[in-house]
Amino acid sequence: MTLAPSAPSAATATSPAPRPPRDPLQLTERELDELAVELDTVREEIFSQRGQSDARYIRRVVALQRSLEMTGRACMLFSRHKPLWWTGVGCLSVGKILENMEIGHNVLHGQWDWMNDKEIHSTTWEWDFVAPSAGWQRTHNETHHTWTNVLGKDRDVGYNVLRMDPEQPWKPVNLLNPVINLFLAPAFEWGIAIYDVELDQFFAGNKSGRATFEDFKRVMKKLGRQSAKDFVVSPLLASLTGSGKASIKGFLAANVIRNVWAHAVIFCGHFPDGAETFTEDEVENESRGHWYRRQAMGSANIDGSHLMHFMSGNLSFQIEHHLFPDMPSNRLAEIAPRVKEICRQYGIRYTSGPLPQQVFQAWRKVFRLALP
């Protein structure tokens, strides 16, 4: 069973005639229209090719994830034995990462809605994350992907707790940037859940108290279900074999590992050197070509193996994902060489680097912007 993304085809690597290097922000309207046509062509080709091989891919991933979770939970029933504890933590960690990254995130983007599968569908999937799917789709799909890296519009720039761009006004609390981020990483799902309630919008008068309260209730309801599954029912069953405390520690470890990994992948896709930010004036009356340019300039990829791409939910191809959020994730590796070449032709920087480098640059920005 092959779960890695398809290799790029040589037949699809054709490119237009080279253009002289230039500033991508100085592209003419005609050039931006041409950029839109080229990227639309890539999208239309892939969407016209979707079929049974893609459907088999996501169903196999779902089956693998569920097998890992079942194995991990079974091991936790006898987790007072160290080998089973480690095996259980490993299976649960990988299972939770796959569920969040390659399945949940991508299903909730509607990447697999074309299958008309009532289970693997953006309107029915509820992921293994404290943040309810509906709230996350609103703040992520609708707001973040529409206004990627637009200061004042994209609330994901710092998630309301971090200063991540020099254009953001400095406040004394920003001195805690590194400390806040250090705690945010292992508690990432909690941070996202609170963020999705949009308390900042409520205090700014842009969201009603009733709507905020309803979102808070949904978070608490989801929290109850998640806590019951991982920290009540499973440990109670494990206590029958004397493994109750070990089970709680195992589930806690798996959740922390998943959160740290998700935090690293997301930060590497948005905050390393080369990922640009924009002002509201710069995106006024955007055409499709303008939007494509901004998505490419505001995102960053992670270089790595097929396994790394798979475990990142193919968000290691963040540029391609931001250009085509509803494209099936298993196709992003296939189009990456074409997208990179198109960016080169139009002078658009295609930011990419190995995971350690991208993590270092993102954290360096966290430290640097803690200061005025």
Automatic annotation (TrEMBL):
Pfam families cross-referenced by the UniProt entry: FA_desaturase (PF00487)
GO cellular component, one term: membrane
EC top class named in words: oxidoreductase
GO MF annotation: an example: oxidoreductase activity, acting on paired donors, with oxidation of a pair of donors resulting in the reduction of molecular oxygen to two molecules of water
InterPro entries: FA_desaturase_dom, Fatty_acid_desaturase
Residue ranges occupied by any Fatty acid desaturase domain in the UniProt entry: 84-352
Superkingdom of origin organism: Bacteria
Known EC number: 1.14.19.-
Listed Low complexity bias regions: 1-16
Swiss-Prot/TrEMBL keywords: Oxidoreductase
GO BP: lipid biosynthetic process
Region entry Disordered, spans: 1-25
Identification of the protein by name: NADPH-dependent stearoyl-CoA 9-desaturase
Species this chain originates from: Kocuria varians
